Amino acid sequence: MKKVFFRFVSVAALCVTPAMFVPANAVEGIEMSKKVLVVYYSWSGNTAELAKIIQKATGGDIFEIQTVKPYPKEYKAATEQAKKEINDGYKPAIKEKADNIGEYDVIFIGSPNWWGTIAPAVTTFLSEHDLSGKTVAPFFTHGGGGMQRCASDTAKLLPDSKVADALSLSGNKVKSAQKEAEEWVNKIIK
């Protein structure tokens, strides 16, 4: 009997397929077969920092939304321009589109909270890309105002997508938010 058992184990050991191996950079609990894209717009760098944490946690691709005409570097001028654009429903032109967006199963979309909602550049991106049938996971950074309408306004722009619960972090906590971001990612991608 022992002889048969050992032969079975030996044959089973030879039948290991590559699908049984988990990549070294895989986050526990994440189904790595889902193709992930992390998209973000960042003015101060906080949303970019959070996007990079999410990208590392998922192993997905990353895409930065850039406006054709950059926002002013000075804070007050940038916030006043953003306020006017939001009030006018203006969608600034962005430098490029994510041409291969149809290849992705899950899209993480990041924005700073500007005047209680998403940055106009993110509105442009969402208006110009068809995310129908995709799982979309919004994430936001803020200067103390919390999420406000960011998640609900994002969901309104994605009526044919599955919009996951959002992550919102204060900009001054982003650098220490790896564990929190990974736990959130694990809830999105199972």
Instruction: Tell me the Rg in angstroms.
Output: 20 Å
What amount of the residues lies in strands?
A: 15-25%
Helix segment count?
A: 6
Low-confidence parts lasting 5 or more residues at pLDDT below 50? 1-31
Q: Give, in order, the helices and strands.
A: HEHEHEEHEHEEH
Structural class of the helix and strand makeup?
Answer: alpha/beta
* End-to-end Cα distance: 41 Å
Number of strands: 7
Please estimate the helix content: 25-40%
Mean pLDDT: 86
Task: Give the overall silhouette.
Answer: globular
- Mind describing the biggest β-sheet? 7 strands, mixed
Topology:
Elements: H1 2-14, E1 36-40, H2 46-58, E2 61-64, H3 75-88, E3 106-114, E4 117-118, H4 120-128, E5 135-142, H5 150-156, E6 162-163, E7 167-170, H6 178-188
Parallel strand pairs: 1-2, 1-3, 3-5, 5-6, 5-7
Antiparallel strand pairs: 3-4
Helix pairs in contact: 2-6
